[in-house]
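Take one record.
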Amino acid sequence: MKLSCIVIEDEPLARKLIVGYVERVQGLHFKADFADAISALAYLSEHQVDVIFLDLHLPKLKGLEFIEKLHFSPLIIITTAYHQYALESYAYPVVDYLLKPIEFHRFEQAINKIGDYQHRLKIDIRGATQLGDKFIQLGSRQVKIELDNILYIESELEYLKIFRKDKAPMRIRQSMQGVLKVLYPLPLVRIHRSFTVVPSKVTSISSKHVDIDDISLPIGRQYRSKALKLLKTP
């Protein structure tokens, strides 16, 4: 099965080069290209893709800010002329960081890393015990949260509600991508525009719902295929 891809690059020649590279790789399926991240977000509001080739210095909205606004978690391959953002970028689902000018053999190396990245993701999703504690900003305070107690997260516009076992939900002002960084290495799977679950806490799955004990959460149509695949990983 081919991986669907889009390219976000504001330089026409660089965009044409990367699109050409994508079309040369048998395992990739090119869907669309964009000169800015705003246009890409509009496309992704109605379509879901597997891989995004992303420049960082973009007009209107920078590359890392774009990742923060995504409502799902595709694999990201950075394509940039700037090396100084490499460390920061790996707080996101970044498979590889390609520096321009990009040679085709280096592009192929990045594609080959996708399989290893997905394998590590599946191992992480199986869940670990004793994940430890993290501190989350709650108003003017830093509040400790036990990762092992988290069941699922609900999005409410610019706020998130973190539901925990035997405790009241914690409501924080944070983006979903932002909280994923804060809660790492807690494995999480997005199942709906509004819901992200901890796979090890899921007690049953159907084509339209995920149950966590007596709580039933909907699976969004655009998340269904990937979410069910990840949640059913043995």
